[in-house]
Amino acid sequence: MYCGEHNGRETGGEREGNWRGTGGEREGDDYDVDEASSGDASGSYTMTGYVDKYPITMYLSFSGSNVTGWYYYDKYKAKMTFTGTYSGSSLDLYCEGGDAFYGTFVNGAYSGHFSGNNGNEMNFNVSQ
């Protein structure tokens, strides 16, 4: 379900156990931001929002049509990295563990569909 590894169990919508991602604590939020609404974007964005009902923080760094970054579930703060492509307003991100985000990025907001490598499908929405 998540981009990274989880060793635990679900209980009533919460997750218990140990997470192994690609980082540690949250990086600072003092990034330069270029508003991107179509075409090639540049700059970086730190955003917060949800995958389904789970709060997340996401960082995107644009270099033309190429995108890199990370996200984590706020409860665990284990960073999971991704790479992706941006064209028009379409932004697709592919995570290390096989999960993916498919959506639109307009004016600093990104929303769409999250596809877990285990077959789970959820909506997501993040913004500055």
From TrEMBL:
Compositional bias (Basic and acidic residues): 1-26
Comp. bias intervals (Acidic residues): 27-37
Stretches the record annotates as Disordered: 1-41
Name listed for the protein in its UniProt record: Uncharacterized protein
Species of the source: Prevotella lacticifex
